[in-house]
Amino acid sequence: MSDTKDLLPLFKSVAERVDRRSFETVTRESVITDLGIDSLSMMQIVGEMETEFSIQIPDEDLVEIVTVGDLCSKVERRVG
Amino acid sequence: MRTFVEVLRDNAVYADHAHTFVRMDGSERTISFPDLWRRSCQRAHRLHELGLRKGDRVALILPEPDTFVLAFMGALTAGLVPVPMYPPMTLAKMEAYGETVRHILASSGARALVTVPGLEAMLRTHLVEAVANRGGEEADVRVILDHELEGELSERPTAPCDVSLDDLAFLQFTSGSTRKPKGVMVTHRNLSTNAHAIMFDGLRATSRDRGVSWLPLYHDMGLIGFVVAPLYAQVQVKFLPTLNFIRRPAIWLDAIHRFRGSITFAPNFAFALAARAVSDEQSKDWDLSCLKAVGCGAEPIQPATLRRFVERFSAKGLRPEALLPCYGLAEATLAVTFASLPDPMRTETLDAKAMHGGTATLAEGADGLELVSCGRTFPGFELAIRGEDGGTLGDRAVGEVWVRGPSVMQGYFEQPEETAEVLRDGWLRTGDLGYLVGGELFVCGRAKDLIILHGKNYYPQDIERVVSETQGIRPDQCVAFARPGTEGEECVIVAEAQTASIDPREVASQVKQRVRAELGLPVAEVVFIKRNTLPKTSSGKVRRRDTRARLEAGELELLVARKTAVPAARASSPAAV
């Protein structure tokens, strides 16, 4: 993890913007559906993170995302 | 007046016209107008070969825009009654999805279901249950995969049967959260009259116009507004998948720029999303001066959101007068009113106190509730505002919006009681609150207290049930309602606390989490009030609108002071009738 950027803070701020509520206590282990993030919000969050770094996560990778950390890792791998 | 099938047939002479479909993987498919007719006829014959006959309902669950549109047109050409249904989305709550699928399959009495191989196994399990609920057997409903509808195209295509204006065209199931959706019966006459109203009276469209839409095709605004109506005016359309827009909002305006789109429609939330999520880099080359009609409808319209959208993109050539607020509902096929095309958006700022009393009086100062004019109804249609006793009210009196005209539905499929509740002497009771000024309609709320967020409907009773089950809340002593927020409406709960010693932060957090988890709805604020102070009717029913008005007026007996006061201009709202 030394040279990769931790994207948890970015996830929190994007999710807060998209869902208009606080995600202060979220960790990388948090399960996304348990946070009450629905599929439309999830798409917006993924899209905003992709736009932020001008990257694209393939659709088939999206189904593997269960936790917040899963999503962050997918983005980190493409940014780092 | 021609039926949609006759329009499809007659459009086959426009070989230089085509629809463009963007698929979910980003690839494009172009289908010319002659090809639309050839493929519709070929699919229609195939559906008859598969044993389906005129009047049979056929459910469609097809995620890609091109296959959905071809199957829909093929079914209409075959004289069948398509039942468009929404496909499951990634991470969607599959349990709730299954329930809706079973309900629609059973209540529409569908004889066939057209879908894609990837969804077949999942849908079959729901189908078995749905058929059993209707007292039938699995073999009664045929599952057809979309590629089975393909076949050889004829050079001289013909429809397999006649379709007339008074035939049932399709069933539009109204969206609902946990309530059972109802099937709106739309006839070919309903479709044709509404298509004429939209394209010619509302949009003054010509064959030089071009439409761009990412709207879901299983709902009225996307389906009638872009699949059906444009063909009456030979308008070519570019269709984008809904989820692709949600993930990358820039593709909507980018498609308008590239395709030189002149007509587009979206609900309020999409304008907020586009203004926020499109980057300067994405929009740097755009020229949006081609847009002549940017329709906004389907959920409460917030003037500030639309203004922000125009400000954000005016440097790209977007003209403020292109904004076109409109009003409609599935029970009237789609459109009921359109703002005047050449005029900029018109709003009124109203006195909050007078609105609570049921009168739309203009505010003295700048503070007050700002509402958008949704324009006038179309030739051949009538609007009325009625009070609770059914009497017609005059200008500026707030009441329920009623509409009469050739696009009003025949009723809800196989639901005579629900139909009788909303149809009287040819008039449709919309369930929406509004007022008229010289024929111009301003919509200000919903008579049934329905909460609409991001295009989804939530019934307050469902939210209140979940809140009631939360530790620290007095059961059934709470109400849920919507108020305007910064980006569309937001949900507020007012609840009596179990005891005065609850930890308000903890209970509020519990309430928000539970509502979110069970209904998928974000709650903006939980307000705690003292025991036995929730406004009720004499028969003990909660009074949502009264509670909301009192909260805004500072008249509720709060148990805990509110963290942030909501600015008066945003908080005020009509209570009325």
For the record, the CATH class of chain A is Mainly Alpha
Distance between the termini of chain B: 40 Å
Question: Whole-number radius of gyration of chain A?
Answer: 12 Å
CATH class of the domain at 4-247 in chain B: Alpha Beta
Observed structural traits:
heterodimer, A: 80 residues, mainly alpha, Non-ribosomal Peptide Synthetase Peptidyl Carrier Protein, Chain A, 54% helix, 0% strand, globular, B: 577 residues, alpha/beta, Rossmann fold, GMP Synthetase, Chain A, domain 3, 9-stranded mixed beta sheet, 5-stranded antiparallel beta sheet, 18 helices, 27 strands, disordered C terminus
Task: List the topology elements.
The complex is a heterodimer of chains A (80) and B (577).
Chain A: H1 8-19, H2 39-53, H3 59-62, H4 68-79
Chain B: H1 4-10, E1 18-22, E2 28-32, H2 33-49, E3 57-61, H3 65-77, E4 81-84, H4 94-108, E5 112-115, H5 117-133, E6 142-145, E7 168-173, E8 183-187, H6 188-202, E9 210-213, H7 220-232, E10 236-239, H8 242-247, H9 250-259, E11 263-266, H10 268-277, H11 280-283, E12 293-296, H12 303-313, E13 323-328, E14 335-338, E15 347-350, H13 352-356, E16 369-372, E17 376-377, E18 382-386, E19 399-404, H14 416-422, E20 423-424, E21 427-437, E22 440-446, E23 451-453, E24 456-458, H15 460-468, E25 473-485, E26 488-497, H16 504-519, E27 523-529, H17 544-552, H18 568-571
Parallel strand pairs in B: 1-10, 3-4, 3-5, 5-6, 9-10, 9-11, 11-12, 12-13, 26-27
Antiparallel strand pairs in B: 1-2, 7-8, 13-14, 14-17, 15-16, 18-19, 19-21, 20-21, 21-22, 23-24, 25-26
Helix pairs in contact in B: 2-3, 4-5, 6-7, 10-12, 15-16
